[in-house]
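Appendix B. Raw example, untouched.
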Amino acid sequence: MFYAFRDEVENVTAEEAKACDLSLGYIGVSELDEVVRLFDLPKNGIGTTGYFKSGDCVCVCLEECNIYVRQRAVIVVSTCTKKHLTAVQNTISRLRGGEVSNARLLYTFVDELLANENEVLVDFQKSLAVTEKQILDGRESESLNKTLYCEKQRCIALGAYYSKIREIIEELGDNDFDVFPEDELKYFDLLGARADRLRENSKMLIDGIVHLRDAYQSALDLRLNKTMKLFTIVTVVFAPLGFITGWFGMNFKNLPLINSPYGAGIVIAISVVVAVGMLVWLKLKR
């Protein structure tokens, strides 16, 4: 689909868009060959983040989309229909009824994409908050360490992606290609600032994940300490009982109480007194 920016934004054909003073196009990969021939665009694979210049056209390659920019047209080629289509529709809504240039078109579309990235980071932060509460409540999953590792790697990848976008925006703002009006290069400063904020937010999330891993490890250590404390108490309480039963278990003929009808009862009573005494002593000593 193509839109022409005249007095009003109009939905036009690709042929009509080519003849317009300024147009915005949104196409899928299946339509790329036809549009490349019609607009004489360079063809580049989607997926490699970066940019290049060919003739009077600048191609910006972002995640799952390429953006071709010329003085009279901005064309988005997408493999992710929903996300980029929404960004295009929001771009048209924001620019409807105002003066538009290719720089402002590119700025508005990329700004919409970065706004979506901000929502991704917010959802990420909410997920970490839920995980932190699970750790505090002792309800975390057994695979939490693996999950946190994967989330950390994802944040690192996002941070690298935002850094690359920042570099691209900075290069576009230099306008070495003379594609954008000089008085509208300010838009790239705004985009650069947003990319910087996203990068800083991704770093904060990485720090948050490291904090969660430390908290999880601390929780595990605390539980282990409680278990070892219980085992220590059991050992201290029953060690004297083991000595008593072992002593009478040697079956020496002249051992006191060995032949007494009250021997077993007396030994049991002594064992109970010793056990209770040890528990009281441990309670007092905490």
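End of appendix B.
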